[in-house]
Amino acid sequence: MSPAAPKRLRLSRTSRIKQSRDFARAKTEGQRAVCGCLIANWRRLTDAANSRVGVVVSKKVGGSVARSRARRLLREAFRVHQHELAQSLDLVLVARASIAERSFGEVEKDFLTVMGKAGLLNAERGARNAEPNKETK
After folding, report:
1. How far apart are CA 111 and CA 107, in angstroms?
2. pLDDT tens digits for 48-82?
3. Beta 31-35 vs 89-95: how paired, if at all?
4. Nearest CA among 28, 7, 19, 17 for reference residue 85
5. Please, are residues 104 and 73 in contact by the beta-carbon 8 Å criterion?
6. All structural domains of the chain with their residue ranges
7. Which residues pair with 56 in a beta bridge?
8. What is the pLDDT of residues 103-114, one digit of tens each?
9. CATH of the domain spanning 13-118
10. Sheet harboring 52-56: ordered strands across?
11. What percent of the chain has a predicted confidence (pLDDT) above 70?
12. CA count, 13 A, side-chain hemisphere, 18
């Protein structure tokens, strides 16, 4: 037997939230959790829909370089773990000022912690205490 084909870890345009009404809908109709350097707002979708992510970074994080880095870190954490989500959802990640001095491993750990506490990860992933992959560090 050959090993199962790995899932593609792409973050296409259809996987991103871009319209302000979708950001607002996730905030008003959804749920919220805070952990470390990020705040997560999410709204559950039907199983047929694909999960989407939107990232919000304010000027409190720093200059344009720091804000762009924070966006990249949050999008990458979602991209790597998007197939571990238990169901489809619209996820809005808000960066806090403390993200500026964090590495990807620390951001990924906070992301997995908040997703695990919210019960949004698959059962097998939650059983591993929501630790980051060793490969992605």
Report:
1. 6
2. 888 999 999 999 999 999 999 999 999 999 999 99
3. unpaired
4. 7
5. yes
6. 13-118
7. 94
8. 999 999 999 999
9. 3.30.230.10
10. 31-35, 38-44, 89-95, 52-56
11. 84
12. 5
Place of tokens 């090993």: 3
SS (HEC) of the chain = CCCCCCCCCCCCHHHECCCHHHHHHHHHHCEEEEECCEEEEEEECCCCCCCEEEEECCCCCCCHHHHHHHHHHHHHHHHHHHHHECCCEEEEEEECHHHHHCCHHHHHHHHHHHHHHCCCECHHHHHCCCCCCCCCC
CA-nearest of 106, 93, 95, 100 to 62 is 100
Tokens (6 digits) for 61:
């994080």
